Structures are given as C-alpha cells and as structure tokens.
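HOLO CASE FILE
Compound: iron/sulfur cluster
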Amino acid sequence: MSYINQDRFIDHCAVFGTYDLKESIYSTILGLHALQHRGQEASGVFYFQESGLFSFKKGIGKVSEVYAGFDHEKIENPRVTNGHNRYSTFGGSEEKNIQPLYAQINKDNISISHNGNITNAHYLKQNLLEDGCIFQSDMDTEVILHLIAKSKETNIIEKIQDALRKVEGAYSLIITYNDEIIAIRDPNGIRPLVLGKKDNGFVLSSETCGLDIINATFEREIDPGEILLINDKGIKSFSIANKVNKTFCIFEYIYFARPDSNFLNQNVYEARINIGKQLYLENKKNNSDIVIPVPDSGLASAIGYSEASGIPFQLGIIRNHYVGRSFIQPKQELRDLAVKMKHNVNLKLLQGKSITLIDDSIVRGTTSKKIVSLLKNAGVKKIHFKVASPAIIGSCYYGVDTPNEDNLIANIKNLEEIKDYLEVDTLQYLSLEGLYKAVNGNQGYCDACFTKKYPVPLIDQTLKKQQKEQIKLV
Ligand code: SF4
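Model generated. Tokens follow.
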C-alpha cells in the first residue's frame, strides 16, 4: 500500500447492475464512474444478451482508464449487466481477481459481484479444497460461487439460500443468472445496496449516487437478509435466513459514502454537517479564529462546526486531487515532504492564527501529525484538533482495509498521549452517543471499530488465533 493511503480506512468495493435498461452497458459504466470512490484498483462489466451471448470488459485501473475506447454501441443491448469496482480486501490486485466472477453451472451462466468480506472464507475454502474444488482466484467471493455450484437444491434461489446459510460476514451481491438478475444483502445489511427504476428497467447500485448519474429513481434499499429476483415475470423477494440483525456500517456516514448519497432516509452530507454541530455542542469552549477542514473528508463536518460555533470557516489546506494510489513513492529522506504532494497550506490565511482543525477520523495518526507539522511551519499559533468520529480502537473485518489493531493510535495511546504525539494544543473526539444523534438515532448500526463489539462472528480470525496459540504450546 502506498504511503498516501496508509493512514486511512480504505473503501471496499462497488457493485452496479441493470435489468432491461436502454443503453445498459453505457449506464453501467456511468454508474461505476459515480461509485469510483469505493474502489479504484480495477473495474469490470459482465453482460448477457437476450440471444444468449455473454461477454466481459475488465481491466486494472480506474473506470475512465478501463473503458476508454470500449465501443459498447456496437454491442446488442444486453438484458442484464453486472458491474464492479475493486479495492482488494481479500486477494491481491491481479487480473484474476477482477470481478464480476463468471462460471457455467450445468450450462447456466452465472456472474457475481461482491462488496464486503466473508469472515469464514478461509475456513470454507479449506473445506471446498478438501472436497476437490479448484479455485481460479484468491477472492472470498469465489467461495460463494463454489457453494452455489455444489448445492443439491433444484432452482437458483434455493441454491443461493443453501450457499449463503453457510457464509458469515458482510456481503452485498449482484448475481446474474442467464437473463435474470439477483440482488442480495447479508442478514446484518452491513454494506449498502439500493434498487432504482428507469423507464421499464431496474438498476442496482451500492449507493444512490449511482442512480442519480443515469437519472434512475430510487425505489428502496435491499433489506438486510433479502434476496431480490428480477426477471421477465417482475420482482420477487426471498429471505436468506429467518434471523435478521440490522447492523449497517455507521462509518459509511463518516467517510466511505459520497456526500450526495442517502441511507436509511439520511443524507450523508447532512449527517456530516450534524456531526460537526454535535462536536461543538459536546465542548463549546473554543476561542479559535477560524475553522479549517482536512480536505475533503473533514469538509462537511467543519462547515457544521462553523455554523454551530459562529467561528468562520476557511479553506486553509488545499488538497491535490491528482495523487493516485500508485503515485511515485518518495525516497526515505523525502518522506516528510510526502504529505505535501497531497496537502498544501495557505500561508497567507494561517500565519499567526489560532485554528480549529477538523478531520473525519484518526487511524494511525501519522498523516494527522504531518498535517499539524505543516500548519505549524506555516506559522499557526494554536491548533485545536476536533475529530468527527469516536476514537478508532478496532480493525474492520467487514470489507474495509484497516491497519492491524496494534497500529491504531487510539488503541495503544490515551487521549493525552495522542494529543502529545500530534503536538496539538487540544484534542477532542466525537462521542459515540453524539454520532448516533447526528445520524438520526440508532436504527441498527455496526460500530465495532469504535467499540470492538463485532456483530458477525470473526471465524477466520478466531481460528487463526487458536492455531497460533497451538503452535506456541508445541
Ligand atoms: S467495523 Fe467499522 S468500518 Fe467496519 S463495518 Fe463496522 S462500523 Fe463499518
């Protein structure tokens, strides 16, 4: 991982699919473009035509790179499309790991796109390998494909139900089965997935911003534990399991999702504004001259804080948007300058000022420390650091790339120690109660990275730990 992103929770993946839509391949590419923030390593579109023909367009890179020059207009409009943007949380970033995955099961064509992470994938894979299954990728998603193929049930919905009852973890899936499309959310609904409509066709997207770009209207969210089948008979809903325990990822509001998306009737931008206001309400003592965000993630919360406190909002840090994950890594001796490739401070605005600095979260603390140092070198007098989330003390195992617990600064240092490490004058995190207030109360959320209360068992993690302990005993 490049230094650029080592100090952030990294977005997982995006899924986008269409059923019976005009210009469906073009719409899918546009949808994936709108969802680019959820995965920038690779992208793929699978499409199945009425004539029974199917094909792929896949590649490593951003959407604009992968589909550049792709002459989709020459292709007969497909009945179904299945699209995916990848950021690898399981398996590497080689070609073989680009989704959607495809297989033929008894002459039926099946493709699958996945956003999330299977927490018992290693365990299931081991059993499948012992049963003679051959894997073509390193992805946890392939486990689901094998389980579907091995199921003795007779129709595709029963096969999927049978397969998913063995699977633990976070999964929002789009599956195409010949000319049908199936949308699925795990019984906790950890990752998002929405249904939209356009003309007589249907659209599935990780976020509502994927619907907006093609002028599709929002119909509803796929429910936790729901399997939604769309075919020429219409829409039909099935369940994975009887037990549903809604725990949608609360971090989607803080950082992952695009500000113009909505979940559970809550607009993400508004939630971030509320978070900023809440930060102020939790500690009104502040004599800063200005409020500045760490762009872009701290922007909306800083606006909210400024509104609530009356302290003027200013863009004191400018972000360079053209620094990608694969950008050239600086030599060791220039590492301290590395942060300047992404952020620069507005010297004229900041000199001699006392500032409130707002960022969405602190993960390892290394980037925050560098930004503080840039600000001090620019002549900032005092820095009051406000964090628009509670302290992160646990890693995420549900489809987000996070550092190991031992590298999370709030897991290894207390508030005073973090303040000293960052060399700021004061440090304040948002409370967990405050976060819930900002997102319209507790409608059923996962907050495990702030509480270590994991709503879905971490089977692979537990097995790994047990194995290590056994090795120690030997
Ligand atoms: S652990 Fe954190 S990032 Fe992961 S799903 Fe839960 S709230 Fe979201």
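CASE NOTES: The chain is about 30% helix and 25% strand. Residues 1-5 have pLDDT under 50 and may be disordered.
CLOSED: yes
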